[in-house]
Amino acid sequence: MSKPYQPPPAPKNLPINAPWALFGGISPKRFMQEYWQKKPLLIRGAIPAFTLESQNGSTNLASPISYEELVEFANQENLESRLIQSDPWRFQHGPFQKKAIPNLNKSNWTLLLQGMEAHHLAAANILSWFRFIPDARLDDLMISIAGIGGGVGPHFDSYDVFLIQMSGRREWRISEQTDLSLNPALPLKILQNFQSEFEWILEPGDMLYLPPHIAHDGIALDAGCQTWSVGFRSPSLKELLQEGLWRLAESLENIPELDKKFSDPKQPATLQAEQLPKELIKQLNAQLQKLKLNQINTFLPGVTAYLSEPKQQAIFESPSKPLNSKAFLKKLTQGKLKTSPQTRILSLGKKVYCNGDEVTKNQTAKVIAAWNALSANKCLENANLGNIQDSSLYEVYLAGWLVFEV
Prior knowledge:
This protein is an alpha+beta fold.
């Protein structure tokens, strides 16, 4: 017999200086100092409940999400899914009809489901335990379910990943090789010359941490093998600069002074007409200095807005029976307002950015404090905000970015 594992949510204040079973008895603080972006770490019994349950009785824990449920998720438009089959290698994007996904008794297939924290509470609870790492770095929780022999081939990631074995067994082979060339003949990014250096079989409840660019290959040993991957995005500096500069350029629309036309009444006659005028350079330089475009604090709002944007697949639904502003205000004092599972929210000092927008701009002190609480805790409880006319909280509630706990 087996029963689904029910992962608890992390406490509001994570004990980052205390030893965690999740990291083999070391603290998150020590993990970040010794392993993060430095070297792999294998943790046996990272989720002790699996071991304890099997030791204390005949019942074994199973994944919180069954094969049947995952097949249903794979048919959703607002969820990124991929089906990978080997022998030969084949690759397809979802959504998938049920009949397109192999049965558990078939071999050499893997179904990947991205962003599951936005679709299932168990995935969201697992993810909450990793909030000792900045939210700006978090990508999502991906679930992989496979038949025997299933995998995606030897590859490497350019980001950090925690591989949690949630059902069945998976053999992992890893290598710190420097040769990361890919096989050009395959439809997947599979390493051409993979040379395994370490090999482990992970049981349910075990976890493997891999920093960027560690070559690895995971092969399912049991039907219905599930691996839950907590991934952390690592945008290039070019990407961050481009996105930040683009938003910075957009913000210039709000400065009327810049609508003034360039003029040069003192321009002398010149024999170098091909050269950019010195007066033009002088005036542009003066504006750059005035706008402080050479200072990082001018640039960071655009970067924060970019990193707070939701995934492309995110779909927000307005409340079916939206509260009016008065009823919304009353419910705030009695209930819990939470971020939608699809919502991304980040802070820059006291400024808060939600789904790409600065939501604390021109807001009252109480609303700004409420947004900061939402950013820190992903929820707001029993809040008395007074008058919320033109409040961004109410606006995004109507847009479906924030929801009341039922």
